[in-house]
Write a structure and sequence with these properties.
The complex is a heterodimer of chains A (121) and B (96). Chain A has five helices and five strands; from the N terminus they run βαβααβαβαβ. Chain A is an alpha/beta fold and 121 residues long. Chain A has a single domain, classed as Hypothetical Protein Ychn, Chain: A (3-Layer(aba) Sandwich), CATH 3.40.1260. Chain A is globular and about 45 Å long. Chain B is α/β, with parallel strands linked by helices and 96 residues long. The chains are: A alpha/beta (121), B alpha/beta (96).
Chain lengths: 121, 96
């Protein structure tokens, strides 16, 4: 029996208004350290976390966009960004800090279905 | 008795829908924190608000990487301007 689980994080919050975005990232990195299979989904306001040119020092916070680059360093390669959330916020792939592939809701549903555990914040 | 209305949540929470229906001539709206996302993309602010002064907190837009895409009908205001506006209006009403 294997202890490896498929764990999916759905990050739906903007980067600085609440701590949800940072918490979600911290949990995912912790799971990756314990060699779990981690998937990361940016949905709704979560896509704002990926916006280029963030400078959170203006509000005395750490810039979250930079921290997202650590996902791949921790071996989290399955990153999904919801295309409809991007479109309704007038964002393009070129506006983002990571080279990502946009997915549709059916792809996200399938991932949620296939995951052992889903964290949604 | 004009009012300054502040909005600190993103358009997902639709606070502006309630606020905009209660605005009177002479009022102003200041977008702060995640509320500044109303100003980073076109068509998020209803056209019916064109008679009201609109401000967005500049520091919050810089932090979120959205300052360069601020829509033209909104004036950027720094923290000092925030204080000035708070004093200038009779009341501050927070939508949260």
């Amino acid at each position: 029996m294997t202890h490896k689980k498929s764990i999916t994080f759905v990050s739906r919050s903007a980067p600085y208004g609440t701590h949800n975005a940072q918490l979600c990232l911290d949990m995912a990195l912790a799971c990756a350290v314990f060699e779990q299979e981690v998937n990361y989904v940016f949905l709704d306001d979560g896509v704002y976390q990926l916006k280029r040119e963030q400078r959170a020092d203006a509000i005395k916070r750490k810039t979250l966009g930079n921290a997202l680059e650590t996902l791949s360093l921790y071996g989290i390669e399955n990153i999904m960004v919801d295309g409809a959330s991007m479109q309704s916020r007038a964002l393009q792939v070129a506006d983002l800090v990571l080279p990502v592939t946009l997915v549709d809701r059916a792809d996200i549903s399938a991932l949620l279905q296939a995951s052992d555990v889903v964290f949604n914040l | 008795m004009s009012c300054l209305h502040t909005i600190n949540l993103s358009p997902r929470f639709a606070q502006l829908d309630s606020c905009s229906s209660l605005l009177l001539p002479g009022d102003a709206v200041l977008f702060i924190e995640d509320g500044t996302y109303y100003c980073s993309a076109p068509h998020k602010i209803p056209a019916s608000m064109s008679g009201v002064e609109l401000y967005a907190l500049q520091e919050d837009m810089i932090a979120r990487g959205t300052e360069a895409t601020c829509v033209k009908e909104v004036t950027l205001a720094n923290y000092y301007k925030f204080v000035e506006l708070s004093c200038e209006f009779d009341k501050v009403i927070s939508w949260f």
